[in-house]
Write a structure and sequence with these properties.
Helices cover 41% and strands 30% of the residues. The chain is an alpha+beta fold and 175 residues long. Keywords: Membrane, Transmembrane, Transmembrane helix.
Length: 175
């Protein structure tokens, strides 16, 4: 994928150079190649910008995938979701800010980018915020949310930890 992206950028650089040559020679010789040169330069810049956007989205999605061999099980609570304004196979891409809890360690916050179906997006909008996840053993900020493994979400207003037990009645304990 990187080689193909590099070749595309190289071709765009060549198109931009041809456009710049047409523009400069048109200005110097008062010819009609100025408009064609400007159009070629704008096309190269526009396609380059679009390619940069696609490569950036692809990179964010790839860094949010964690292989099973280097994964640590965890749970994630979605704190914030933001639409990345792109789709992959009809699924919208979102950037999630999550709180991650791995067994035996303190919770931490990180970002994860995922393409989710409208069904999952609707569940998140309806209040489902807990999902199982995989955290990279060597880079714990890389987290992959497992959308098909939601964790139970308590109803709003439910305390997260049970209240402490009531102390025994001291009058009965003396006997």
């Amino acid at each position: 994928m990187i080689i193909i992206d590099g070749l595309v950028y190289l071709v765009l650089l060549g198109v931009f150079a041809m456009g710049l040559f047409g523009f400069v020679s048109g200005v110097r010789g008062h010819e009609g190649t100025v408009a064609g040169g400007v159009i070629m330069m704008l096309a190269a810049v526009g396609i380059g910008w679009a390619m940069t956007f696609v490569v950036k989205q692809h990179h964010e999605l790839m860094t949010s995938e964690v292989g099973a061999s280097r994964a640590v099980r965890c749970t994630a609570t979605i704190l914030k979701a933001r639409d990345a304004r792109s789709t992959i196979n009809g699924d919208h891409v979102y950037r999630f800010h999550v709180r991650v809890q791995t067994p035996g360690k303190a919770p931490y916050e990180t970002d994860s980018t995922s393409a989710v179906s409208s069904m999952v997006a609707g569940a998140i909008g309806a209040g489902r915020t807990g999902y199982a996840c995989r955290a990279d053993r060597h880079h714990p900020k890389n987290v992959q949310l497992l959308w098909n493994h939601p964790t139970p979400t308590p109803p709003p207003g439910t305390p997260q930890t049970p209240p402490p037990p009531h102390p025994a009645d001291p009058t009965k304990a003396a006997t």
